[in-house]
Amino acid sequence: MRVLLVEDDPLLGDGVKTALIRAGYAVDWLSRGVDALAALKTEDFSVVILDLGLPDIDGLEVLAEIRRHSRLPVLILTARDAVEERIRGLDAGADDYVLKPFDLQELLARLRVVTRRSEGRASQELILGGLAIDEAQHRVSWQGQEVILGRREFALLLELARHPDKVLPRSRLESLLYGWGEEVASNALEVHVHHLRRKLDNKKLIATVRGIGYRLDSRVA
Ligand code: CA
């Protein structure tokens, strides 16, 4: 999953970004509202973490602009004493909020809640036939056997499993695996898919759609 983090506090932003990457998310971190809006126009994100106190435009304005176009899950960060701001954020379409200062584990838990709610799932476990993915525990089992995956393999499998039978374009999968500023080797995606197929000991679950991308075949799962 690719997260857009909009936070102007350098220490906090850095801490959140690190925690998200460790949890298996691809993260793009921006500190200005206008940059966030520009990025949202051109890039594909799964969820936004939005600080409401930004240096240029109000975070609520960013939220309103997002809601003009999409239902993308948005988690807002607000100060503990800013009750009115929080209420306005929820009224403006935020999916949930976290009060600063927050515990990083709580932020990650809230993030999982808003993303799975946006998918209409009640449980943190995503199950497709013999494939079970536990987002919170970062565990994957296939045909009853636990499979140990690297964080990019995990992110890739989770994204494919969140959209079963849909062809996900290469560019989208690559942008999910890596934020901006990270070099992506031209064959990196193939390498990760190859590893996934080997670890799952199945070549058909993740189908290659030549010239376009990959698709997780739910009939195989
Ligand atoms: Ca701020």
Automatic annotation (TrEMBL):
GO terms for molecular function: DNA binding. Residues 2-115 form the Response regulatory domain. The modification 4-aspartylphosphate is found at residue 51. SUPFAM superfamilies: CheY-like. Residues 123-218 form the OmpR/PhoB-type domain. InterPro entries: CheY-like_superfamily (IPR011006), OmpR/PhoB-type_DNA-bd (IPR001867), Sig_transdc_resp-reg_receiver (IPR001789), WalR-like (IPR039420), WH-like_DNA-bd_sf (IPR036388). The keyword Transcription applies. Keywords: DNA-binding, Phosphoprotein, Transcription, Transcription regulation. Residues 123-218 bind DNA. It holds the Pfam family Trans_reg_C. This is DNA-binding response regulator.
